[in-house]
Write a structure and sequence with these properties.
By secondary structure, the protein is mostly beta strands. It folds into two domains: about 5-220, Jelly Rolls (Sandwich), CATH 2.60.120; about 235-310, Jelly Rolls. The chain contains five helices and 23 strands. The chain has helices at about 20-25, 60-75, 105-110, 140-150, 215-220, and strands at about 5, 10-20, 35-40, 45, 45-50, 85-90, 100, 115-125, 130-135, 155-160, 165-170, 175, 180-190, 195, 235-240, 245-255, 260, 270-275, 275-280, 280-285, 290, 300, 305-310. The strands form six sheets. Strands 1-21-18-23-16-15 form a six-stranded antiparallel sheet, with no helix packed on it. A hairpin with a 2-residue loop joins strand 19 (about 275-280) and strand 20 (about 280-285). Helix 4 runs antiparallel to helix 5 (about 215-220). It is globular and about 60 Å long. Its cofactor is Zn(2+).
């Protein structure tokens, strides 16, 4: 298995989404409904990435992890252990709900999964922003009171965004994404979201969306993460995020420049957020995401000025312990 592993996107309808993934990524979206998410790499019971080329075409990521996990992740990776990262594109035409994900130490008690995530802003309209982290002195009690009088937004930091920004959101941090952002989200393999406020919006079915106030308050009380800060850098190579669950490094490659990755080091995810590159016979363009297997050598060459994200640090069995 020496080729770049690419998978078929799984598109998700979202009330806050749009059709922007068609124009931004040059893809054909299904139907006419608002598409908020494209799941690019996922190994979950309810959603499975399916290979699109090479010897893994038609195979799910779960099948590959079960039968070729040693090649993908390393020699000791258990066959029944899911792929630990979920990668998705977000088309945030409207503001997302104000929400939180449960910290690892209380997630089982709440019946959920922890979810630390990173947002890379690939495109931002003028005035776009993200909301992230409670302001100093705001605790769960004060936040609960603000929910009652519809002033919760004023208690959360608002961070204006531009293309190239990156923000690491630990489990337990209150957050929302404003409309006008196109974001690549790289996260723990989790789909647990506790909504606490949704701006009075109705769902796609015309009914109010479910809120999870008590779970959200418990998550806030258990949170020990520092306040998030945007990473904004013009450096050729910069670490955008580094946490227990993963590390993300952005590389700027001029046309003709290359990066090499050696077999036997670790599994990696490569995401193209600008330009065009080749890996062997594969041509990669904006929006492509895929897996660089543990057991293979890779050489990535830019055929135009390019921006790529390389995610690693997720294949250690020690990291995957609860």
């Amino acid at each position: 298995m020496t080729t770049f592993l690419r998978f078929k996107p799984i598109y998700q309808e979202r009330v806050w989404g749009g059709r922007g993934l068609e124009s931004f990524l040059g893809r054909k979206l299904p139907g006419t409904t608002p598409i908020g998410e494209s799941w690019e790499l996922v190994d979950r019971p309810e959603a499975q990435s399916i290979g699109v080329e090479g010897p893994w075409a038609g195979k799910t990521l779960r099948e590959l992890m079960a039968t070729r996990g040693a090649e993908l992740m390393g020699p000791d990776w258990p066959a029944d252990r899911p792929f630990p990262i979920l990668v998705k594109w977000l088309d945030c035409r409207e503001r997302l709900s104000l929400q939180v994900h449960p910290p690892a130490r209380i997630a089982p008690q709440l019946g959920g999964e922890p979810k630390t995530e990173n947002w890379y802003v690939a495109q931002a309209e003028p005035g776009a922003a993200v909301l992230a982290g409670l302001k100093p002195g705001v605790d769960a009690t004060a936040f609960r009171a603000a929910l009652q009088d519809n002033t919760a937004e004023s208690l959360v930091h608002r961070l204006p965004t531009v293309a190239g920004d990156s923000l690491l959101i630990h489990s337990g941090v209150m957050h929302a994404i404003d409309g006008g952002n196109m974001i690549l989200e790289i996260q723990q393999n989790s789909d647990t979201t506790y909504r606490v406020y949704d701006w009075g919006r109705m769902g796609l079915d015309g009914k109010p969306r479910a809120m999870h106030v008590e779970q959200s308050m418990a998550s806030l009380e258990a949170n020990t993460a520092p306040a998030p800060a945007l990473v904004r850098s013009a450096a050729q190579t910069v670490v955008l995020a580094e946490c227990r669950e993963f590390r993300i490094t952005r590389h700027r490659l001029a046309a003709g420049a290359s990066l090499s990755f050696k077999a036997g080091e670790q599994a990696r995810i490569l995401s193209v957020v600008g330009g065009q590159l080749t890996i062997g016979d594969s041509v990669l363009t904006l929006g492509d995401n895929g897996l660089l297997a543990y057991a293979s050598d890779y050489r990535v060459t830019a055929t135009a000025d390019s921006l790529i994200l390389v995610t690693d640090g997720f294949s250690s069995l020690e990291i995957q312990k609860p």
